[in-house]
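BUG: 3D viewer hangs when loading the predicted structure for this chain

Environment: internal workstation, default settings.
Expected: structure renders.
Actual: progress bar stalls at 90%.

Input used:
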Amino acid sequence: GISERAATLCPTGDGNLYVTGSKPDSAIILKINPDGEIIWARSFYFFPNHNDITHLSLDSDGMLLGSVRSDPFNSYPGSCYFKYDPQEDKLIWVWRPGFYTAYSSLWSISEKYPGGNYFIIFSSVLPPFEKVIMEIDRQTGKEMPGASWRYDWPNSNSNRFYYRFLNDSLMIVSNDGVFTGSFVRPGLACLSASDGQVKWCKVSHLSPIDSTRLQMADFILDDTAIVSVFSGNDEDLEPAKGFVFLQKTTSNGDILWVKKYDLLEFPGEKATEIVRVSDGYVVFGGPEITTFDNLFVLKTDFDGNVLWARRFDYSTRDLIHFHEKQGEFLEMDGFFYLTAHSRDSSGVWDWVIAKLDSEGLVGDSCAYLTPTPVETYPILDPVQEQPPLSFRNLDIDFCSPVPIKPTATADVSGYRTICENICKPEEGCDVKNNGCVRFELLSIALDADGNRHYRVRFTNGCAGQKLNYVAIQLPDGTVAVEPNDGAVVSTETGGDYLVRNPNYSPFYSVRFRSQGVGIGAGASEVFEYVLPPQAQPAYINVLARFQSGQSYEAHLNVFNCPVQQAVGNRADDVFAQVSIAPNPATTSLTVTLPAAGEGRWRIFAADGQEVRAGEWSKAASFMIPVSDLSQGVYFIQLGWGDTVVSKRFAVI
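Structure tokens produced before the viewer hung:
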């Protein structure tokens, strides 16, 4: 019966997450683990009505910094910012900024540098629509004299305002809309981090006379480049149709490229957030703010080429998300997390938290996320316009404290899992934990030649640590039958690992070295290797080494593992026996099956569209030409009898 809405996400620093939300009379912060289980839930009472925490960040001391916006259309409008000790459950201070106190939108608060003061960013929601960056004292929360700056974007009639530090001396800020007559375009500016002086200012990729309705959503820094995402229509002012745009800009303000995306199943899509991952950019968004529809997740490579897109359709309940929050979507340890809220037929709101894998999915058993088609339109010859941006120092000496009210335990009795990957992990027959790493011997199975197939799982529980390689002991003088030395093998999660067989350091072993960023905290990988019949070790020494140089080691006993008499009874054994090579491919792809027979194959692009299909007959191996496929990631689906196997491959 009570409406609750989700807001933002923030990593806790120990492998968990903070999630903010709101009820009619309070704000809420949850601490959850990566599986969505609630560790604690607390209510906060800043204003006597809806309290939306618009931004949450963690400083270098583990303190939570938050900005709060109350409903401006009731009797108690306002914004405030706070510092909170989550370990002691104590609000340290809460302040109102003073500048247009009643009608200001406070967008973020974060640490200037580790151990330094904080920056807050806010803007007026009434004329003159100015934007303010204010430095506040770390200890007291009050403004620092002479360290606040006010900006006036010409003809700006909007208020969203975000920043990122480009380096120690420069910062990038964004404005969601700059008006030219009735046309609106997004803006970026580069400022001095020491005195706020403007270095350059750019407005979108179109001329001032073009019919545009574009608004900035978010931006990230990728090395020395700025990658921004915005939404709207660059062809006319028709509000019924919107597009998503990605723009890459140099640190000097020069536009490198602009791509336009049309998610065909969305009549009016609107992006809200962008994150960088190891192989590209991921954009999160949903419907226009005036409509209720599905959410989307869109992934591209570093050149803006689409890799895949997912549509989040929550059954009969419409989904909508906040457009005025930072932190609705983030990547942590190889997974994506998002917040949203849904409304039922009675008008009651519920919040939604979702965890997606690296392909934007929850699991095979969860049908809420499905592939959605995308069309891409490169923008040729973008306009390089630099409009003026006025700036002045601002002394604010009338920040006022907000009375601190005790927090309370929030009622979370109604929270439930609506969808999850029901494929529970296989239990190991011998399990060892060393530090934050879990080692498991999953199975031993014989094949027709008497070779023994060993499967070992490594689980990374180390916060902030990425896996570099694993080593699995071989009996002295033995070389594993599989995998081959120098091969790159793909695990069931899609990770790629370079094999050293045999490997001599830190001990005689078969080694699997990650070819990507390595799995992070909470993630697991299963490695399989094959020993000849004469090699039957009584125990296996295993080691996991992280990119930091830290290593963990354990011994796994084999006497608790019954030797299975056949390989191929289980679905994952069938998966392991199907191979595709080479991967990546250039001209052709060779598919090798467990046995000769008949079946049908289908190839899907990363966005879920079928691009090719065919059949094979009375063969255990066959070749598929791929030279005419464009570069990118694909999936091949193989079906015979009642067996269906899907594999991922790339064309280069």
